[in-house]
Amino acid sequence: MSLKDNSNLEWNPAPGARLPLARDGTALITSHSCGKGTQDDPRIIYISKTYQKFGATELDEFNQFARQLCKDLGFTHIWIREIFFTTQWSAAISGYQASLDLDDLETINNYKSWDSIQCNILNNVPQSISLIQPALEHLGVFTEFFRTKLVASLDTTFFWGGLGCLLQLIIDSEDPEVLQKVPGMMKQLILQAEAFNDFCDHTVNAENPIKEACFDMEVLYLDFHICCIRYLRGEGGDYGGRHPMQLIERRFISTKRDLKEGLDRVQRVVQSRPSRVQPPLGTSEVVVSPKFRCLMQPDSRSTRIFDRVEIFESLDQILASDNTRSSKSVALYGMGGVGKSTVASSYLARKYDEQAYDVLLWAHGEKSVSLRQSFTDIAWRLKLPGARSQDHGENLMLVQDWFQTTDSKWLIVYDNVNDANTLMPFWPSSSQGRVIITTRNRSLAFDPVSDGLEILPWDAQTGCDFLFFLLKNNIGRDLESETTSALALSKRLSGHALGLFHMAALIHDGEFSIQRFMTMYLKNPRRAHGDDTLSALWDYSFKSLEEDSLNLIGVLSYLEPDCITQDIFEGADGREFPDELEFCSDEFSTANAILIMLYDYSLMFSHHVLNLKDCFVEEVKASKTFLPSREFCALLSSCERFLSETNSMTELDALSAINWGALQKLGDVPQKSDLEVAILSHQAQAAESIGQPLKAIELNKRCYNIRLQEEPPNHKLLCFAANNLGYCHNTANLHEESEKWYETSKSHWNMVTKQLEEIHDRPARHIKNHARCLVYLGKYRQAKEMFDISIPRLMSEKPLNWAMLAYGLFAQASMNRRLHLFEVAEANFIEAQNIWIKGDQTRAHPFYAACLYKIGACCLDQGKVEAAIKHLRDSLEILKVHTTSRPVEHARSLFKLSESLLQDNMDTSHAESIKLRDEAESVLKSANSAIMTFDTESAYDDLSMKMHETSPLLTAARRRAAVGNRVLDAQITGSRNGVE
């Protein structure tokens, strides 16, 4: 029986039903019986309805069906694919429309095109949305290809409406996780469309397989957008109480896989027809687009390279690609100034020009501070979603994730690395890629890198040739004398590349011949050389200045060596400014601009201070009579403050120890006790943060005793010092002693109000800390009373101290969980998490990881296993960055995740649970070999240093939310660990 005999199918066309025309204007189906093409031919409509009732979902299946139907109906020709695309697209839209509520459909109708989204949504949006706008441009190009190349004028208004509705939901969402993660997912998916665009840029008449792939990809994008809308709405109870982000992440993974398959089909078609379509080089489908390339180099570098061909060849051999995707690394080691960095930067430039790598990166490896800043710069250069200029921990996580997921060929240089301990937290966690480090430390050539190349100074003749290479236009007429002088200078400098380079610069700037310069250089060799061959460079640099310039520099250095007066930056009334400086005419605008700049300047100068500290240590070793100044100790103390606020605890611990030793050499100086308290307080803060609360208690007691000896006693400072001691005892699980110190702090505050003869409320953060102590003592009624007082006060403070409020909510949640009020506790933890992310906007801080851990634990307490697993995995991702400083917290999350997996129904969960449990026990036992119990959460909590509240003002002081506390912090001269 032929298909037209099916009595269940209707033959009558629907009123006004039409099928689109082909691109050449003819009907999609030409009827032999009618003798002409027509859109209204009832047989065409019959084919469409027959197809829908037949239920074909694949093009090959539809082909077979349509050929038979056309034969039965007497058609001579049919554009089968065009009918398939039209009918399938209409059916998909109808299905998605039926799945949405009326409000969302109304929102979708507001956005008809990419232009309408740009005009109505993408103005004044959060940074996570604005960062994906370039990717959305690529999606616009892709959708235009879909609209015009597959069938004449496919309707894409519903597609753009769905995208606009999703973007609006993300912007309006109160869940910070949605705002942070979903735009990044969208960008990664859209990068597949960008790759498609690059493949098909020059395709005038696209092949049928490319059209099919484009259709499938467009439907996948629409499906992801609509599913996200439904998950975020969470209506109908169809999702089993699962968290929307969990559902979105699952849909993202499957969509990304399917898009990748579609793009692979396009690539195979293009590569099989090189005469028609050429594929772009270096295609990447994961994070960077096929044509995205990046080269990072140091700011100061030599653009001229000499005699390094053999080293470049050796690097090529070591880093050469093979059939495996394993990573390879090499260390360029040698004495300072022989040209290691120049070799590395020149090699990067050469490989970039040769297109051997897609992405070539540069990181300054001297200190953790410089490495953190370098990874922030890398995150910005790679345009990674979520990158922020002041959030180094988050940026490190983003870059490490990029190393693991990208298919781009990449190479990174770590320049001037001193030791492996500094480097390892920033070492790529990927099993692919290439790494070069430059170092003076030969041991790094064996660990962590796999190969080493020593860069040696040149011999005298090669150094002489290098001088001639640099001084082509400064060679005297007497070539023999010039050659003899150049050879002599090369011998004097032992073929040292940097020394020869600087000497060449002096010769060039002074317009000397080499022979004349050597005459000057040899007049006083002892003074010129000093302790090393390069010490004369500074003197010769200043000799190039005219007398007036030298005099002016001398006067300025004498009068104001470290300060420029503020008057220069203040505009007088009526003064006109150029457009780019118009903000200077308004004090508020100027203040805002300066506030934004302060952080970057502090970071820049902190590097100099840390180098100054290293110079001080070397000078003390060389001279027993060398003494520091009080200004030097104050400078280091200011840098300590900055390091504490940027969570650089390792550097803070080392710097404060050196500063304490320097201060003890001074003898009696004005305000020495204030400096001592500041340094001790910073040392205590660092000790507490890295898991040494007993040491922190000892240091804080010394602070308290110093304040106690002052006459007359300053009870405000004593109040804060006692509060710090209460906090540290609480952290060390010495809760009874903690309560005593909080009572002492309270008595000092009462003395303050008595002296002022006014009633002043005890600081809300002190009450919150006291309540936290009472929770661990089991005095829940008293703790609740204090939380009921402190948390509303913290909420009403102006400006809002979001850090203290988040800690207060966290402590309150901990109490509710102990009382088995799991749902209330979960809500408290989520509120603390939201307050933190809105104020700090960083997911990399340990407190954020603690919030995720506690939320996961509460979910498990309530039997919400999938939600618990999600939050605990997210917590572990953050703690990977802090494994060295927070091993117990890391073990605790491993243990809790293993508990959750035991209750999961997935086939692989049990095996993973056992593995995580063993890892957690190993970490816990290494932290305390006396521990014998590993099967309870409390075993880990007892060792945990309460990571969620370690150093509560760790980062808050540099945030605008805590500006109101800075005057008080200055008054207590650095007593900032714990609470203050």
Automatic annotation (TrEMBL):
Where does the NB-ARC domain lie? 324-445
Q: Which GO terms describe its molecular function?
A: ADP binding
- Coiled-coil spans are none
Protein origin, superkingdom: Eukaryota
Q: Which SUPFAM superfamilies match?
A: P-loop containing nucleoside triphosphate hydrolases, TPR-like
InterPro entries xrefs: NB-ARC, P-loop_NTPase, TPR-like_helical_dom_sf
Pfam families in UniProt: NB-ARC (PF00931), TPR_12 (PF13424)
Instruction: Read off the PANTHER family from this record.
Output: NB-ARC AND TPR DOMAIN PROTEIN, ZU5 DOMAIN-CONTAINING PROTEIN
Q: What is this protein called?
A: NB-ARC domain-containing protein
Annotated organism of origin? Xylaria multiplex
